Model the fold of this input.
Amino acid sequence: MKQAHKILKEVFGYESFRYLQKEIIQNILNKNDTLVIMPTGGGKSICYQIPALLFDGLTIVISPLISLMRDQVEQLRQLGVNAALLNSSLSQDIYRINYENVKTGKAKLLYMAPESLAKEEITSLLKTITVDCITVDEAHCISEWGHDFRKDYRQLGNLRKNFPSAVCVGLTATATPRVRDDVIVNLNMVQPQKFVASFNRENLFLQVLPKRDAFEQTVDFLKEHKNQSGIIYCFSRKQVDSLNDDLSHQGFSTRPYHAGLSDEERNRNQDLFIKDEVQIIIATIAFGMGINKSNVRFVLHYDLPKNIESYYQEIGRSGRDGLRADCLLLFSYADISKINYFIDQKENELEMISAKAHLNSMVKYAESDICRRNTLINYFGETYQTEYCGMCDNCLAEEKEMVDITIPAQKLLSTVKRTGEIFGANYIIDVLLGEESDRIFSNGHQKLPVYAIGSEFDKKQWHTFVNQFIRKEILTRDLEFGSLKLTKKSYDVLLKKDKVLGFIKEPGPITKKVKFSAKSGDQAYDNELFELLRKKRKEIAEENGIPPYVIFNDKTLTQMAAKLPQNESSLLGISGVGINKLESYGNIFLSVIKKYCSQKRSQIFHPGKKTESISRQRLKANSDLRYTLIGESLNNGASIEELAKEYKVKLPTIISHLERYVNEGKKIRIEALTQRISLPKEKYAKVFDAFKAEGMSSLSIIHEKLGNEVSYEDLHLLRIIFSVTRDI
Done:
């Protein structure tokens, strides 16, 4: 591991490992089969790349898309690592060079698509060399229960049989417990250690809005993200083309991406986006898996995704540099009908049932009025109990006093009942408003006593009521046909047994403009210098024909603009600057920084003063910094109870902040935690053994394994202690 730490700093330019990376790397180096479930941007690649540089033999990396392999190989080469790619997209000369590099042992990593394994030339090559590691990226593709099943992945189990001495590593960002088990079986893994990192991407702001005027909502959103890189996902090719035309006419820098375009146009548009020549890609779900672009600042879902796995993977393509990114989903029930139509075309009944279950979970997420992370993260089997994440619309929604809306509820429920529980919201609202439509007249519903009894509210307000009643389970909506139906709670409301509290107008969207995060860690940075560094990065990228983020990501540039390094030694202390990149680009970026500092000598931005002036009160108000202050206060003698009173939050919230503090590699005063634990100390070891066996992400699994004898609060506190003490 000393060598691993050295490679981490000298090659990759990072001072310390992220959460779980150290344990994963150690397990792989011990030649133990390993399954890694880690969110996009969580640092999966380093987990196998560092062992690859320490093994004597070759590491084979199986990846589903050529563009993804190209991207990773280019990034490794920029770091001074010899990695090879073998596929049909290469010219004969490049293919021959890569082939020889693998054959002679010069290349430490070989990237291939699963289809390539069937080629006799590849089979013969691999027989002549030592293979120490087989890594399967996007491992969920091997499972029929996964959202992105690919038949070619099924042969990977045979690859493992051909190299029994090689360690097998599976990596994915989105795998439910059922998919994880399927991956293990199909890859022929032997007693694999599972490492499940938290699915919580704290830097992603999650927001869902009712789709009213989708185009206008999109334009407003893009204006808030001027000059930023982002992706817009649409359900169909036709929608992609239409939206691309409309937005480009409005002056936005956009390109389309879908399977209906030629390979040449698709690749060209993706290349323009990756190189920051185009700011926005409008795409179907075919786009995204093949890129590792770190500076995507937003993802907008113009239509409802088919399942939570796809949604999570797609929003995960933003904010990979760790800086803030905004994820907006426009939600309408019309989208549910579109998805259901295609589900109904499936011939396999099991596939149809599975697809409908996935869609149902997606709708529940969109309709939820609790913290978005609670719904999203719990879906993947991880226990998430934080009451306030501070980074979603539900948590930040303006609090309003609820009023009695029982009468509107009774009117709407009566209309649903009297029309037979077979119509959708739009029709029911038209009846309530007394619309004179042919459909209403043909059904004779203008004669009903409920006709035109809802004119005191407009159509938008009635839709607001419908959404609230569904969330409160006073109404339910048929996901296949969209019709509204009554529930048991409906009759309690109709019979005046229950009162309904809600909003005449729901809390509105988070409308404040979200600008590019002006932080590097906890430090402010000079935005003018950052723009100069970004400009220089783009010039270098264009000269070398590579994406800008391959040189340095935005987070590295913000740290340069915060710390103002003046020599190679101080530049090497910036996260993301390793020895090879220092030699390649160090002097270029140092010259920009020195010139800027010289020009601004009299008014130079001083990050130290800026940071030191931040008051305790401001730290308390900033959810990104609060966990640091709480961790430091605990270490300085405060108790968990005292901190809960000081911050006016419940104990689980304080414990959640302390977990985040420890997960960043910081030490904590353990006796302050043990004071809260009711479990006898002699029983700690049993809990720690359970963590070692099952991983630490799902406390519900640990709770069940221990016979429900240990409280969840004790498990949270013991997880923190285990994280701190296992490295001692």
Observations:
- The mean pLDDT is 84.
- The longest helix spans residues 579-599.
- The domain at 403-502 is CATH 1.10.10.10 (Arc Repressor Mutant, subunit A).
